[in-house]
Design brief:
The protein is of the alpha+beta class. 41% of the residues lie in helices and 11% in strands. The protein has a four-stranded antiparallel beta sheet. A two-stranded antiparallel ribbon has the order 1-2. Strands 4-5 form a two-stranded antiparallel sheet. A hairpin with a 5-residue loop joins strand 4 (72-73) and strand 5. Helix 4 runs parallel beside helix 9 and helix 8 runs antiparallel to helix 9. The model has no long low-confidence stretch (mean pLDDT 95). This is M15 family metallopeptidase.
Length: 227
C-alpha cells in the first residue's frame, strides 16, 4: 500500500472484506470484531453503517449534494435550501457533514460509522444517522453511552466528538487510533490541492480558492481558530 495515494482514497490494496459491503485494514477489522463481540455480550448490537470509501465514492456524494440530490444540513441538523445558497455557502454546508473527496478519513480503512441494528429495528427500522438518534431518547443512545466507556480498550476513539466549528459532532464515527496515525502523518494540503485540481468536482474554483481555510478547519478538523 502506498500511503501517499491511500490517504487520498486511491489505494485500497491493503483492505480486507468484512462482508459484501464493508472493507477495513486487517488490524482495524480484528479490533472491531473483538469490540463487536464484547458489545453483543453487553446487549449492544453494534454494526457498520459505512467503512472504507474511495475517492470516487466520496466525489459522488459531494457532487450529488452540490446538485441538491442529497440534503444539506446546518450544524444543528436543520435542512438547508440548497438552491438558495451561494457557491461559497454551499461548500461550507457540505463540509459540515461530508468530507472533501481526498480529505475523508473514510479513505484510509481505519474509520467507520456504526449503529445499533437491533435497537433501530425495534423502533421501526427508520434510520437517518443524525445526532438526535445517538442522544437520549434515540435508538442508538445506549450504544453511544457504551462506546464512551469501552472504545479505548479496543483502540478506537471518536475524532469528531466535539463540534469546533468545522465538522459537526458525529457520535457514530470511530477511528482506530494506531492505524490512522500513519495516514495523518502524510496528509498534505499541497497534494490535496493538486488532486482536486484535476478531479471533476463541483464547485472546484470555490474550493481551491478557499482551501487555505478549509484544509485546517475541516480536513484536519481544527475548527474555527479564534483571532
Amino acid at each position: 500500500m502506498n500511503l501517499r495515494s491511500a490517504w487520498l482514497g486511491n489505494d485500497e490494496s491493503a483492505l480486507v472484506n468484512i462482508n459484501q459491503t464493508h472493507r477495513l485494514l486487517p488490524a482495524v477489522a480484528d479490533a472491531f470484531s473483538a469490540m463487536q463481540q464484547a458489545a453483543l455480550e453487553m446487549g449492544q448490537d453494534i454494526q457498520i453503517a459505512s467503512s472504507y470509501r474511495s475517492f470516487e465514492r466520496q466525489l459522488s456524494i459531494w457532487n450529488r449534494k452540490w446538485h441538491g440530490e442529497l440534503p444539506l444540513y446546518d450544524h444543528d441538523g436543520n435542512t438547508l435550501d440548497t438552491a438558495a445558497l451561494s457557491d461559497t455557502d454551499k461548500v461550507y454546508a457540505i463540509l459540515i457533514w461530508s468530507a472533501l473527496p481526498g480529505g475523508s478519513r473514510h479513505h484510509w480503512g481505519t474509520d467507520l460509522d456504526v449503529y445499533d441494528r437491533a435497537s433501530v429495528q425495534a423502533c421501526g427500522g427508520r434510520f437517518d444517522m443524525v445526532d438526535s438518534e445517538y442522544r437520549q431518547g434515540g435508538p442508538c443512545y445506549a450504544l453511544a453511552q457504551w462506546m464512551a466507556q469501552h472504545l479505548e480498550a479496543f483502540g478506537f476513539y471518536r475524532p469528531f466528538l466535539t463540534d469546533k466549528g468545522g465538522v459537526a459532532t458525529e457520535l457514530w464515527h470511530l477511528s482506530h487510533a494506531s492505524s490512522a496515525e500513519p495516514f495523518e502523518a502524510v496528509r498534505s494540503q499541497q497534494a490535496l490541492h493538486a488532486h482536486l485540481r484535476n478531479a471533476p468536482i463541483e464547485g472546484k474554483a470555490t474550493i481551491l480558492r478557499l482551501l487555505d481555510e478549509l484544509y485546517p478547519r475541516f480536513v484536519l478538523n481544527e475548527g474555527v481558530v479564534e483571532q
